[in-house]
Every structure is written in C-alpha cells, then in structure tokens.
Specification:
- By secondary structure, this protein is α/β, with parallel strands linked by helices.
- The protein has one domain: NAD(P)-binding Rossmann-like Domain (Rossmann fold).
- Helix content is 44%, strand content 14%.
- The chain has eight helices and seven strands; from the N terminus they run βαβαβαβαβαβαααβ.
- Helix 1 links the parallel strand 1 (14-18) and strand 2.
- Helix 1 crosses helix 8 (223-234) and helix 3 (73-87) packs parallel to helix 4.
- The protein is globular, with a radius of gyration of 17 Å.
- The structure holds coenzyme A and NADP nicotinamide-adenine-dinucleotide phosphate (NAP).
C-alpha cells in the first residue's frame, strides 16, 4: 500500500499512551512510533505491554513500558515522571485505557457502573491532569479515545455511554481551558473495529454480518483506520483543530444500533 503520510512527521516528539499495549490504542502507539515519536505505554499489566514494546523496538523505535492503573492518581503521576526521566518531556498524551462489558441497566451493580466510569472518564482526567505541567511546557496535545454509544442510546451499555460522554466533556472543557497554553485537546470516536477486545465483548459473532449491513460503508473499521485518524490529529496538519471528537465509524452511528 502507498504511504499516506510523509516520513517522520512526529520526529522529536514524545507520546504517553494509556492502553497502548493492545488493540486500537496499541495500533496508535505503534503508528506514532513509526512516525518518529518516542513512546511510553502504560496499562495495568506489564505482560500486555511487553510485546508492544518489543514490536516498536524491533521496528527501530524507542519504547518505555510502565505498569499503572489510570484509576490510581499516584501511580499515573509516577508513570509520567518516569517517562520524563527517560525521554525528557511529553508532547502527546493518548488516553485509550478503557473497560467494557455488556450488561442490562437493571442488572448492573453500582460498582459495575462506577468501575467503567472510573477507568474511562476519571482515568482520562487523571492522566490529563498529571501530564498538565509537561504539556504546558511542550505546548503539547491530548487525544482521547471515545466511542459513539452515547450519541443515541445503546442498550446494555449505560455504563460505557455515561463514561464516554464524560470523556467527550473532558475533551471539550480542556480544549477551552488549556487552549491558552497552546495545548490542543481532541478525541476520536471509533465505530465497530474488527479484531479487537471491544468487539469480542460487544458483538456475538452471528450478529457481525447483520451489523455490517447497517454500516453505510458496508464494512467494519480496521485498527489502521484509527491509526490514520490519530496520525492526522497529532500532526501539524491539525494544528488549528481543537475540541473536536472525530467520528471514525463509516457512518454507523447515524443509523443507530437497532437491527430492525
Ligand atoms: N457484567 C456485569 N457486571 C460486571 C461484569 C459483567 N460482565 N464484569 C464486571 N462487572 C462488575 C463486577 O461484578 C463488579 O461489581 P460488584 O463489586 O458490584 O460485583 C464491578 O464490575 C468491578 O468488577 P472487577 O472485576 O472488580 O473490575 P476490574 O477493575 O478488575 O476490571 C473491568 C474492570 C470489569 C472493566 C474488566 O472487564 C476489564 O479489566 N476490562 C479491560 C479490558 C476491556 O474491557 N476491553 C474492552 C475495551 S472497549
Ligand atoms: P483493549 O485492547 O482491551 O484496550 C483497552 C486497554 O486498556 C488495554 O490495553 C488494557 O490493558 C487497558 N486498561 C484497562 N483498564 C485499565 C486501567 N484501569 N488502567 C490502565 N489501563 C487499563 O480494547 P479495544 O477494543 O482496542 O479498545 C481500545 C479503545 O477504543 C478503548 O478506549 C475503547 O473504549 C475504544 N473503542 C473501541 C471500539 C472497538 O470497536 N473495539 C469501539 C469504540 C471505542 P490492561 O488490561 O493491561 O490494563
């Protein structure tokens, strides 16, 4: 395939990526590294980070892997401090850490709801807040991985809908409050992306074909689709884009989730 972006568009940048060991955000971490950025990846389990670290390094990039739970502010502060110790600064923060499962609202416990809100929304705030001083110095930027579930209503997803609505609010509020420091804050809302943990959890295999027919572009998204959107938003091509959550879903949310 022809290259879409010029070489080394993120040369000299340092990115801190939560959830950067696996799935969609793992793809984003690898793509930012291929574009020249040095990468720190963080999530709870070091065994989810090591293979991505090795992949990035075997492609000639630099990667630092650090175990930290985004719900634990002190652990995130420590992960950010160690990234700065290692690479000297942070220019880009990507918030991809998230949790999801299907559950009817009437069966969901208060702790089940709160757990997902804590990981996705409070975790995103924690990382942005802990990285603020570094982003202020670098006139850096934040990219929050959201979803489209809350644009309409998605049954069995009340917890994630509330959490991602919170993420979008964080994107908009910080873009306004921190724009004056030269910090851009944007998001990406992926639609259904094939070969991911999220899709495994949300879509029983027999429904895949039915959903494909409900996607205007008639296909599932690929991790590469999100990587390309992330490269665009983190590059200088997007230097006047702030406070936007870019929907990358083939038009899916416009038709809703109903299969009827
Ligand atoms: N259905 C209903 N409730 C569930 C659930 C499910 N499938 N899975 C977890 N919960 C509830 C638990 O019962 C618990 O509530 P309770 O104390 O009232 O019983 C609460 O959620 C917390 O569960 P716990 O297993 O302690 O959370 P955790 O912090 O260890 O893990 C999760 C977080 C639940 C989000 C877990 O699924 C996870 O680690 N996910 C990461 C990977 C992922 O979701 N990827 C897809 C991203 S789109
Ligand atoms: P994934 O591979 O499971 O990614 C989630 C990541 O978050 C994992 O690397 C996990 O690593 C990390 N994580 C979970 N809880 C954490 C915590 N408390 N602290 C730190 N890290 C934590 O799933 P995915 O499907 O690729 O999803 C990636 C992102 O895209 C998520 O934000 C998701 O909401 C969003 N999204 C996905 C889809 C889709 O179709 N898949 C659609 C819309 C939006 P550890 O287990 O090591 O912590």
């Amino acid at each position: 395939m022809n290259k879409i972006f010029a070489d080394n568009i993120l040369q000299g940048k340092v990115a801190f990526v939560t959830g950067g060991g696996t799935g969609i955000t793992g793809g984003v971490a690898r793509a930012l590294a291929e574009a020249g950025a040095k990468i720190a990846i963080a999530s709870r389990k070091i065994e989810n980070l090591e293979p991505m670290k090795q992949l990035i390094e075997s492609n000639g990039g630099e990667c630092f892997a650090v175990a930290a739970d985004v719900r634990d502010y002190a652990a995130i502060e420590n992960a950010i401090a160690r990234t700065v110790e290692r690479f000297g600064k942070i220019d880009i923060v990507v918030n991809g850490a998230a949790g999801n499962f299907l559950c009817k609202a009437e069966e969901l416990s208060s702790n089940g709801f709160g757990t997902v809100v804590d990981i996705d929304a409070k975790g995103t705030f924690n990382v942005c807040r802990a990285a603020f001083e570094e982003l202020k110095k670098s006139k850096g930027q934040i990219l929050n991985i959201s979803a489209t579930l809350h644009y309409l209503a998605t049954p069995m997803q009340i917890h994630v809908s509330a959490a991602k609505a919170g993420v979008d609010a964080i994107t908009r509020n910080l873009s306004v409050e921190w724009g004056g420091y030269g910090i851009r804050v944007n998001g990406i809302a992926p639609g259904p992306i094939e070969d991911t943990e999220g899709m495994k959890r949300l879509l029983p295999e027999p429904l895949k074909e039915k959903l494909t027919r409900r996607i205007p572009l008639q296909r599932f998204g690929r991790i590469k689709d999100i990587e390309n959107a992330a490269l665009f938003l983190t590059s200088d091509a997007a230097s006047y884009i702030n406070g936007v959550t870019l929907v990358v879903d083939g038009g899916q949310w416009l038709l809703g989730t109903s299969f009827s």
